[in-house]
Amino acid sequence: MQAITYHYVRPETGEPPAGYYHLPLEGFRAQLDYLEDTHTLLSKSTFFECLRGDRRPPADGVVLTFDDGLLDHYRWVLPELDERDLWGLFFVATDPLVDGRRLPVHRVHTLVSCYSGTELLDALLDILRDHDQLSVPEQSAEGMYADRDTGESIRRFKRLCNQDIPYEHLPDVLEALEYRFPEDRSVEAADLYLSPDQLRELDASGMVVGAHSVSHPVLSRLSLPDQRTEIRNSRRRLGELLDTEVDFFAYPYGGTSSYSARTRELVHEAGFEWAFTTQPGTITTTDMANSPLTLPRRDCTGIEHGETAASLPDQT
Ligand SMILES: [Zn+2]
């Protein structure tokens, strides 16, 4: 069986981050048609039986997962699933629910959707040079003028923001960037994320809500106490909000380097039963028995009708 990952799913609304990589609603519908014709979309009870080892997962079994607690999931995904009598697993980072602020990862998406990679990268390197405590990682500075291809500059820009700039300086740097690129400042969390009420509605309509950390960091970049806080607090916060136990976790970014063996232990200690990565693969009986905290997923873009409207490189 396989779990499929979705992020932005929307018609061409022009709403932020418009132009950013997303699965067009039509593509989502076509993909669901395709999956319903050729695969077995597992009912919630069958999926749980498989996870608990009470039933062998069908080789063509599929579950749908949706990351980041995006408003798209309420506006466009939920009605589509409801109509087809399907369900999904929704992984939500809790900061936007609590303080109504956008997560750094999505501020970067909005910047990338509004401005060219080259101008963003040039401005960012400029800001880093001016910043007393920050130096430009060599790898990012070298060859920047040799290769001005937009795809490459976006990749480098995102890498700097998401991986290289120390988390304690990231808010300052993003603020300086948004000052230079003001289009980004007009976007509010309410334009982008589910509200607590919408999340409750999702839960009440039979969807399953899982945690996706508090602030969507690369967990392996944090100290163990900070990782523990991100993992534990996201579970507690969602549990309070929905008045339920939260059994599922998805590692932010989700690649092999985004979490460690210790991270996995912390996920276990926090009380989660199952966790998903973004490493591609099918979920086998062995995975469920031996590695329930690193279940693989497959991105929707790799499946029939998953072509994206605006395909920027290396999206997460
Ligand atoms: Zn995410």
UniProtKB/TrEMBL annotation:
Keyword annotations of the record: Signal
A single cellular component GO annotation: extracellular region
InterPro entries hit by this protein: Glyco_hydro/deAcase_b/a-brl, NODB_dom, Polysacch_Deacetylase
One Pfam family, short name: Polysacc_deac_1
Transmembrane segments: none
PROSITE patterns: NODB (PS51677)
SUPFAM superfamilies with a match to the protein in the record: Glycoside hydrolase/deacetylase
Protein name, entry field: NodB homology domain-containing protein
Species classification: Archaea, Methanobacteriati, Methanobacteriota, Stenosarchaea group, Halobacteria
